[in-house]
Please model this.
Amino acid sequence: MTATASVPPMDATGARGVRLSHLTRTYGAVRALDDFSLDIAPGELVALLGPSGCGKTTALRALSGLEDVTSGRIIVDGEDVTAKPANKRDMAMVFQSYSLFPHMTVAGNIKFALELRKVAGDQNRIVADNLALVGLDTQADRYPHQLSGGQQQRVALARALAVRPKVLLLDEPLSALDAKVRVQLRDEIRRIQQEVGITTLFVTHDQEEALVVADRVGVMSNGKLMQIGAPADIYSRPATGFVADFIGLTNKLPGRANGATASTLGQTVPLLPGSASGDVTVLVRPENVTLRADAAAPTDRRGTVLTTGFMGSHAKVQVQLPSGGLLAAQLGVAEASALAVGDTVEVVLKGVPALAI
Amino acid sequence: MDGVNARARRSLGVFRVVVLTLAAAYFLIPLVSMFDFSVRFPLTGKVDANAWLALVAPDDSGRLDLLREGLFNSAVMAVMTVVLAVGILLPTMVLVRLKLPRLSRTVEFICLLPLTIPGVVLVVGLAPIYAVISTKILDANTIWLAFAYVILVLPYVYRSLDAGLRSIDLKTLSETARSFGASWPTVLFRVIVPNVRSAIVSACFITIAVVLGEFTFARMLARTNLQTSLFQINLSDGQVAAVVSLLCLGLTTLLLVALDLVVGLGERRRARSARTVSQEDA
Model:
């Protein structure tokens, strides 16, 4: 998780990716970045995820040069760019708010970026190719105010890709869009990023977005990188209670840990490495819980159905425990439809390793 | 219900007509009176165009030279004031908004300050400065009054530019341009200026109007501008002064209308293209 100070090794194409090494950024007493380190391999898409104010945007802006760092080093493609101004770094950014230049057409926006970057070649061809990449090749002559929000962000993406930057920076590019367009564009970003093979840093507060789009997800809190790993690892093997809590829904069950297992709700569950021992809180995902309608269930694993909610492909059931606590379970639609509010159920924890804190 | 609405609409219509008539009377009666004064000899009541013809007739009194000098000085000062005021204030306001937002209140206060200080008081403060400028730095040429006029127009230019800059996402646009490699001058001239063009033009309008109508500074600092020359002519021939005032007013109005048309042309073209596209979509 923590980077070393050396330059990342060169890959087969000669690119070295990005290294953010021990970055600190303070605003008075506030540490927006606190000894933050991150390596991004060439062609990799890393998503930084975290709650508002965790420092994810500051990290991205530090990499872009729009924000100075108090200490630390930023190395891009083997070159230390820490002291370089934003306009001298070979990067391109897509912002959360619509960032097309309003007085220029779609084609004009892309050509302006090409001109600034002094990109050689047939500019009309580059514009057409990149607009085709985002499916807007018929919109070249329109002005930004004639496009929808989703189209504007697509053009912003095409503009960023057109200059073939060393690093593509995406600062919550989907936040301003409605849900359907967001999902559509999210998938497009992933497709295009893989097609073009560009090194990308994607900042978001939407966990689903991060998990779907990224090769690796970094979870941040208070200016620190709490954990970074493949989306599946982050989800199924959270390193800390914060990560487990932030990524997906988690049931917090009181229990007692003893070595590699913990007992909770009268059952034993295997524990993930790094779990605490003694009196603990066991973090169990809703999909690792099953419910059986059983009025005669043992008291310590008994619960009462409080609510059921249809979610399309699955259902969410909320259960009241005898201790007064609440437990969420994710069930198949058929399973859930067999349960009614007020039913007494037996809570069964699947044997999936959980984290104890 | 419909009857009530119709009555309300009628009352509103009458109210509009009354307000427009009063406003038109307020503006037009002095102009018509000035015109009447310029063609009617005050003592005999005889109507002729002598005062108007005097502007093109050979003149030995030197009053046309004085007028030309005043007009030329005012025109030069209007251009200088526009360039200086917008040239100084726009980059300053952009810088403050992007890098020093905590200073925005201070800058606003400084820019609005001239509104609260009477012109006569400002001149009292500026007189010793102009004594130095005239004798030690530059010379006594009237056009250097443009520096003082920059102070005079600061509040109006600030308000116009402020409205323009508020209407765009300055931070995102400039950061986008920077991230693509734009230098700060490129950001200013190719990204910000085109998007606040209307605000800049309205700042120019008001600056030109203020400079062409300025009298106190020039009179008290003994300089010749359009208004002081009109005043001088008025002392010897009130009718010619009225003619020149009317012509200046007309020319200024024409200039502002022309500027407005030039600016509006681009916007209308853009709006038309937007309408065409929507029709194609439909």
